[in-house]
Amino acid sequence: MLAVIKKNKKIILFFIFCYIMIFLFNFYRPIDLDLMWNYGFSQNVSKGLIMYRDFNMVITPLYPAITGLLMHILGNNMVIFYLINSFYALLTLIIIYKLDKKIIFPFFIYFLFNTAPGYNTLIVFFAFLLIYLEKNKKSDYLIGLVISLAFLTKSSIGIFLALPTLYYLKNPKKILKRIIPVIITNLLVIGYFYLNNALYDYINFAFLGLLDFSNGNGNFNIITIIDLLIVVYIIREYLKTKNFELLYILAFMIMSYPLFNISHSLTAIIPLIYYLLKKHPKITSLFLKFAPIFIIIPIISLIINYAICNPRYDNRLFKYRYLQNEYMSDIDALKSYFHDDYNDVYFFLMEAYLYKLTLNIPINEYDLTLKGNMGYDGEDKMIEKIRNIKKGSIIVIANEFEKTTNEMLKTQASRKIYDYITENYSSIGQFHKFKIYVK
Length: 439
Fold this sequence. Notes:
By secondary structure, this protein is mainly alpha-helical. It has helices at 2-7, 9-27, 33-46, 62-74, 78-99, 104-113, 119-135, 140-151, 155-162, 172-195, 199-217, 222-241, 245-252, 262-268, 270-279, 281-289, 291-309, 325-338, 352-358, 378-387, 405-408, 415-424, and strands at residues 345-347, 394-398, 426-431, 434-438. It is globular, with a radius of gyration of 23 Å.
């Protein structure tokens, strides 16, 4: 064992450096809502809540299940959450090293700036693991298992990552070997939710809700055009080279749909970056030539992140972690108004998870009322639930909802729910950036 470590000392030290940098770079990056939702889902699981039944989410269950279980074992706080997610990212780097050790350094630099705690980090790992397994002609049963795990992490991407298997249509036994683990793992998941009285909720939120998500959140813009051009390039490359890796790289581009924003698109092209670095070794040589500079860049970025974040908030959840001043002022305003009494208070806000986790208020089914995250016909069903909350309940909404209909369509916030609350309940006050209504 010692001989193996000594022989591979440099690469082990490199991976340790990568792990530390990924952890620090993300830990001192400003908190965003995607991060809070991913953390919240995982924390819910670590506390014993049943996915979909006790809280809603549109993703399939693997990421919060694994992360929540590890948090339950290792510690239920954000430091552990970041450490776990940094390990997911490290697994991707290890696979890249096995695929082509020459490109590991430039790939790490790109990957560092485009990884963040959440299910996307895990799905990137599964995509590269599939490329590795295909390239090395590993067991079809194992490939089928990884496809299933990808599907159970993010269903849309998992389905597309299964499409390259159609290449083997002339070999039905090979396809059958891949289908078997998919069926077994999904039956186990279905059985789990059935036994926990959450099967309908699972189907409704994780699958039927996708219809509302794609219809309500489409955002076609210049990034859409760029993504389409990238898809055309990948298809042309495949037609020229017949490189099987490109089928998985093409399948992974579905990551950018339907939001078509910079974050999703930069994640979607991570496998393409791997391919381009292999195809153009001069780029790798350039990175290696100026390695000290490329190491300094993320370190400087880390320092800037830390300085911008101004970390000073400290409680049970965010110990050793910060909240941006904007969120801190929101929290202070809520605490001052409610005096830590949140009984029968409902937060219909984009930031509901962040506020409730920080204030140590239990999460429930009302806390992620975004288009596409409430199941099929979710807005109308949520309005029906709001009708049934008891009289005297307090409802908190945001002033920023005072926008035109067109402006609201640019976000995942539900204008329909906002309009129902403002038109049917009594306004009893306004403070900071919040409006208060009572049923």
